[in-house]
Every structure is written in structure tokens, then in C-alpha cells.
Design goal:
297 residues; alpha/beta; Rossmann fold; 8-stranded mixed β-sheet; 18% strand; globular
Length: 297
């Protein structure tokens, strides 16, 4: 990565670090109980801190687990931006939620984030008894960049034969890092994601252009999707990433993967955090409800 590209990425990182935690006040779910603890997981790309959200007292144990990967363009390290989603799922879906503070670029580019995401999930599967959760019932999911990592975790788990998530949640994911962002159709004049911002994210995360077509970087370009876990794919009508999300849902379905696909109308990228509130709440409830069904004994 060039020095100028690194400076640009660092500037965006500083600019967005505070913005990414500004969740709409009506989506914070502060009325729901919050039982959290911290843990640290050793991975092949260094230690990773995680926040564990426990379901309400009285929930049958050991509870299943949902592993969450936050967004931020692979550049912003603010897992607390997903506190409201983790809180809601833990409180209503009857599962433990593990919110992962994975490494980000430009300091830790590809493959460090996906290595950490996979290793943490594998650790969760293998260490249920010690932490009072059911490692045999695990789902993974994420938002934006975190949804890209989710797709990569599921691919690695399938290819290595190590574990099989019960569900993957792909919410507003960048799935094609090869295409220039200016070619990605926007349905409104000023979508949240501009081509320039997206280029900064991609060049920081994938400094070697030869890696852009790697299926762990661009899952939407892979042609071997059979055998992946059931998926909930959420796209936003006005999101510049909508078309690749829609295409991924169709490709998964064509490969025989059970897919629930929902396009939320009239909203843009990150609407599960900034609103509109009705659509944001509906999407988060869709995640929780789908998890309840997928993780049922």
C-alpha cells in the first residue's frame, strides 16, 4: 500500500470512528436487559477481544451462540456500534451473542481480519462447555464489512470441514471487490457510500490487487457455493451494494443453499443503525426471529 493510500485510510478511520457509534436513539433498545462479559481469544493473527451478551436469566442452558462481526469498511474498529443488535438478539432469540473486535486495516489488512473471524468462531464451537453455551448450535452474521467476513467464515468452515453454522446473516455486504465502485448502481443521488470512500476501504483492506478476486475477499464472484450454511440475506433498496447482495442471494439459491432474502425498500446502507426506525426494527427482528428458528434444539 502506498504512503498516500495509508494516510487516506487513516484519515477516514479517524473521521468515522465516532460517527459509527451514533445509533438512532429509538434503535438502542435500552429497555432490554444487558448482561455482558469480556473474553480474549488467541488466533493465528493475534489475540482478539470479544464482548459476550448473555440471554435473560432463566433461559435454558447451555444456550446456542450467535457470533457477530461489525461493519466499518474493514477500517473502523468499533464493535460497540452493534451493541443494540447484540442486545436485542440476546434478549429475544434465547442465545448467547459474541461481538468480535477483529483487527482492521490499514495496520492489519487482508488476511488478518478473516483469519481472526474464522479462528474466533472455531474457538466458540470448541469451547462451549467451559463457557456455558452450546458449541454445536452456532450461527454467524454481520453487517457491511462484517457480512463479508461472515461469508468468508462459512466458506472456510465448509472447505476445512471443521464446523457447520446453522445460519449465516449477510446484511448489506460488499461481495465484489473487483468491480470499481463507480460502476455500482445507486438509486438515489447521494447514497451513504461514495465511490471514493469505497476505494479507500478496498485499497486499505486489500493492498495487493491480485487478492481482490480471492473468494475470501469477493465471495460474490465465487462459483462454488454449494454446501454453504442456510442464509438470511438483507439488502437495502438505495444501497450502492444492493445489486451484489441480491445477486449473491440468487447464486446461493441456485447452488441449493436455503436462502431467505429481503430487500428493504426506501432505505440506504446502515439503516439497521441509523434508521428509518420502522425498517431498522423490522430488519433486526427478522434477524432475531430467523436465529430463533435456526438455533432451536
Amino acid at each position: 500500500m502506498s504512503f498516500s493510500a495509508r494516510i487516506q485510510a487513516r484519515g477516514v478511520q479517524l473521521l468515522l470512528s465516532g460517527v459509527m457509534t451514533r445509533v438512532h436513539k429509538e434503535l438502542r433498545f435500552t429497555d432490554l436487559p444487558k448482561r455482558t462479559e469480556s473474553l480474549r481469544v488467541e488466533t493465528g493473527a493475534g489475540p482478539v477481544s470479544c464482548t459476550v451478551y448473555r440471554p435473560p436469566a432463566g433461559t435454558d442452558t447451555p444456550a446456542p451462540v450467535y457470533v457477530n462481526f461489525h461493519g466499518g469498511g474493514f477500517v473502523v474498529a468499533r464493535p460497540e456500534q452493534d451493541d443494540h443488535i447484540c442486545r436485542y438478539i440476546a434478549a429475544t432469540a434465547g442465545c448467547v451473542v459474541i461481538n468480535v473486535d477483529y483487527a482492521v486495516a490499514p495496520r492489519r489488512p487482508f488476511p488478518a481480519p478473516i483469519t481472526q473471524a474464522y479462528d474466533v468462531t472455531e474457538w466458540v464451537v470448541q469451547n462451549g462447555a467451559a463457557h456455558d453455551w452450546d458449541g454445536s448450535r452456532v450461527a454467524v452474521g454481520g453487517h457491511s464489512a462484517g457480512a463479508n467476513l461472515t461469508a468468508g467464515v462459512c466458506r472456510l468452515a465448509r472447505d476445512r470441514g471443521t464446523f457447520t453454522p446453522k445460519l449465516q446473516i449477510i446484511d448489506s455486504a460488499p461481495l465484489d471487490q473487483v468491480a470499481d465502485p463507480s460502476t455500482k448502481h445507486a438509486r438515489i443521488a447521494k447514497p451513504l457510500l461514495s465511490p471514493q470512500l469505497m476505494r479507500i476501504f478496498t485499497s486499505a483492506y486489500v493492498p495487493n490487487p491480485a487478492d481482490l478476486s480471492d473468494p475470501l475477499v469477493s465471495p460474490g464472484l465465487a462459483d462454488d457455493l454449494a454446501g454453504l450454511p442456510p442464509a438470511l440475506v438483507i439488502t437495502a433498496e438505495n444501497d450502492r451494494l444492493r445489486d451484489e447482495g441480491d445477486a449473491y442471494a440468487k447464486a446461493l439459491d441456485a447452488a441449493g443453499v436455503p436462502v431467505t432474502h429481503r430487500v428493504f425498500e426506501g432505505v440506504d446502507h446502515y439503516f439497521t443503525h441509523t434508521g428509518p426506525v420502522p425498517a431498522g426494527k423490522e430488519a433486526i427482528e427478522l434477524m432475531a426471529g430467523t436465529l430463533r428458528t435456526a438455533l432451536a434444539p
